[in-house]
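Re: the request from the purification team.
They wanted to know what the chain is likely to look like in 3D before they choose a buffer screen. I agreed to run a prediction and write the result into the notebook, where they can find it.
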Amino acid sequence: MVTAAYFVVSEAVTNAAKHSAASAVSVRVEGPPGGPLTVRIEDDGRGGADPAGSGLTGLRGRVCALDGVLRIDSPLGGPTTIVAELPCV
């Protein structure tokens, strides 16, 4: 689970740096007792990330393999928010 969280953050930050023209990226990780590990990455870039693109599809597969959920919100004009919820077992 920690490895998956690392890859979600790494891919999201890399995508923001390469494609979004973002000037800021924030990462928040929360893990309440008994709840999922929630990883939230938000950038202030131009948005328009394609959830069907190879990088985000790979992330979704990695998260789903752990019975987690990956949500991507990236309207044109931004911002982009990616949230992964990974079960803590």
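For the purification team: Residues 20 and 45 are 5 Å apart (CA to CA).
Please add any questions underneath this entry.
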